[in-house]
Amino acid sequence: AQTVTQSQPEMSVQEAETVTLSCTYDTSESNYYLFWYKQPPSRQMILVIRQEAYKQQNATENRFSVNFQKAAKSFSLKISDSQLGDTAMYFCATSGTYKYIFGTGTRLKVLA
Amino acid sequence: SQTIHQWPATLVQPVGSPLSLECTVEGTSNPNLYWYRQAAGRGLQLLFYSVGIGQISSEVPQNLSASRPQDRQFILSSKKLLLSDSGFYLCAWSGDNLKPEAFFGQGTRLTVV
Q1: Quick check: A75 and A34 in contact, CB under 8 A?
Q2: Torsion, Cα of A3, B46, B80, B42 (10° steps)
Q3: Residue B61 needs a FRET pair 20 to 30 A away by CA distance; which of A14, A79, B83, B113 works?
Q4: Long-range CB contacts for residues B66-70, cutoff 8 Å, separation at least 24
């Protein structure tokens, strides 16, 4: 079975600062992906970044980057130069055979 | 390009009434389809997924059922709603050869009163 754990229910960060959201996972899949999704107040789920488990290089998308530690089954998200528009729920997820399993989310508030 | 439509956006239903939420995907064929529920302050719970017409896998025993009558249509139903069925329901699809992620609809806010 696959599980995803996000141990930080809420976080806040000052505008322009850097924040890191934590995620650990467990899976029996040999080939899988990891994702971070953002859910703003509109409730629309938006993909922030993806990581292929067989790739050692950490994924980066503009101000968003991940720290993927496969042996530790850790997949944290770093947001640099935080902006007010980054205020949202952030969900970590893993994929296996057909299924996507999500964590409980971290509510991030960016403070002006 | 692919799009996913989910309706209605908001629904208020009395306890004991039936439910039908519909989701359709355009611009792709043979997608994998999903229904998730997001309870207040909680994560996304996978309810059902389907890899083809008539093929439904249930993840959590509950008062709900799902059907896939057409390739790109996924329906979430209940014969008699319970108060505990309230929540935010999200439909999603995957299967893009170039993108491994799931793509989500706008969601339905269901309140059972």
Answers
A1: yes
A2: 60
A3: B113
A4: B66/B35, B68/B33
Closest CB to A44: pick one of B36, B100, B106.
B106
How confident is the prediction for chain A on average, in pLDDT?
Answer: 95
By CB atoms closer than 10 A (0-12, 13-18, 19+), residue B2 is middle
Which pLDDT does position B43 carry in this prediction? Answer: 87
Contact A44 B107 (CB under 8 A): yes
CB-based contact B108:B10 (threshold 8 Å):
yes
pLDDT tens, residue by residue, B61-82: 788 999 999 999 999 999 999 9
Secondary structure of residue A62 in the 3-state scheme = coil
- What distance in Å separates the CA atoms of residue A93 and residue A104, rounded to the nearest whole number? 10
**A76 and A48 in contact (C-beta within 8 Å)?**
no
Closest by Cβ to B49, choosing from A6, A99, A104: A99
Q: How far apart are CA A86 and CA B4, in angstroms?
A: 24
